């Protein structure tokens, strides 16, 4: 169905692949790019010719609005290959919807659904050799949109570029991470853009995160900006708390990214008859649960890290270690997700999307 | 003193100026760029060769971190020419300090002071013909820094480009503006990056501002994100309220840009023996003052607009018109500022900085 429009994409082929030089067992996340990229410009109120071309530097004016006013949104998804060389994405329609939600919040034009999926199909077919089978391997797929109009008045641009670039990936965090609960800095405001995958949300976290890292914590769990009393999410992951046998995670609001992995974990919890509550989670509740031994696990959920166990947190200069649990939910969900993603198990919710 | 290092800048000259084609009486803000630009790359932990070259498009990787994580900060200043062809900037040291404050908050390297001022000197000398004398004319000068490293992991970049581009300008807002007081959306959070001139802060305002514009208001006055009870600043201006003969403006905090025009207005108020209070200003106080007739003026203060009178505001679906005042403070400060900027009057605070 989607493939009928694929031939509308202009494809510029390269004779030489860079793949021979790549050590797939030694990849640093996000530094190696595949042979091809997808792009499509928005001009005169319309998306123009979608194109797949060799990955290469681009030419842009120094006055392009993206450099000055941060009109930029992105998505992150992964492609997986099974042992029969079939390639799958995981719930890409959710990424498609979310990038347009992000774009709308930043006064950017929405991207057409058929362009998005035809672009992915064409690109991933050409770059198929970059997707290695086997759990732990994937191709990270990065759609993004930037404001290209050369004009530095503080208002929305009239021209944009939508692109997809791809980078082969291994699992993002391999070790359990130690986190700081935010007490001073914040990630986003009520009525702000925290729910959007807006570029500026990420740069804003780098400095506070570097302070946390100096103290020996890899990540920050952000709290609500007004009181810092409620736990929200991490820099690139939503967060789950297991208290005895019950899971708890914060509800979505306009500060939190509506994560696709989070959504999937909530569904899997239901499928596994694990009790799950979506409600505000206070710092005090978690400290208390840690003290009385009912806090069994904390883990992050996100495309890059899949499921990332958290081994300790700090709040008010006090460090709380989380003992490892047998039969951890984190590893249960991780296994179930990876099995679905790699086509090793049934897909009863239709989460896999095949690249044909 | 500064000029002794100027010869360290590599200058690439152009044979042809674009200036002949420019109608200086019909300029749209931020769309026309001068003949030259300044740039300097940060690589291997150091700022490299500073260069002035013809303004031109640049080449950058699609994976450059600025496109994905919004690591980008900027400044805005203006150059003025007097009738003797002397060129001045207004308090550029404040812009220099502020861009480094912004950079630090976004985990970006600070730029050296001598590079900054030598760059400005060299660039503005080459582009001097673009600065027209006479009040209302100026050259808008835009220093900015972007993360150029081609890597899409969510962490600070290792390479950056610092640039200065220039655009000839007329006054930004000519008509008094009508504003909305924010009730739902917010510009920034406590503990966030609102005090920095971070690119992402601006894109976040475009959509709420477009909603305001549909209702007939050109700008939004942002309120504190937690309660929306206190008035903070506009998108590119700090805000002053005149109640009877007293001026009031919000204090700086981590949500508000520490404006150079604001600082100068506070000084001028003192110089003119105008009573000024720097304190929180509530929406209710201003509505009440409007109702009882003590609200005489509201005006914005910022580099682009200089001083911009506000003629009406809306809150809770109620519109408050502000009658025009004889002997307005807005026009007093505007005249005094422009006279200092254009070297038409004494400069007792040493705000002018001459380009030699
Ligand atoms: C701020 C933030 N929260 C959560 C997530 C997890 O979302 P998802 O599961 O859709 O990848 C991400 C990353 O994508 C993120 O950037
Ligand atoms: C958010 C914001 N507030 C206030 C201002 C005014 O600051 P300045 O007077 O330094 O130009 C600006 C513009 O520069 C701004 O972007």
Descriptors:
homodimer; alpha+beta; D-amino Acid Aminotransferase, Chain A, domain 1; D-amino Acid Aminotransferase, Chain A, domain 2; 2 domains; 10-stranded mixed β-sheet; 9-stranded mixed β-sheet; 23% helix; binds pyridoxal-5'-phosphate; L-leucine-2-oxoglutarate transaminase activity (chains A, B); pyridoxal phosphate (chains A, B); EC 2.6.1.42 (chains A, B); branched-chain amino acid biosynthesis (chains A, B); Branched-chain-amino-acid aminotransferase (chains A, B)
Q: Biggest β-sheet of chain A, characterized?
A: 10 strands, mixed
Radius of gyration of chain A: 21 Å
Mean pLDDT rating of chain A? 95
Structural class of chain A: alpha+beta
Strand content of chain A: 25-35%
- State the name of the first-level CATH class of the largest domain in chain A: Alpha Beta
The largest contact between protein chains, plus residue counts on each side, is: A-B, 70 and 70 residues
Provide a count of the helices of chain A.
Answer: 7
| Proportion in helices of chain A | 10-25%
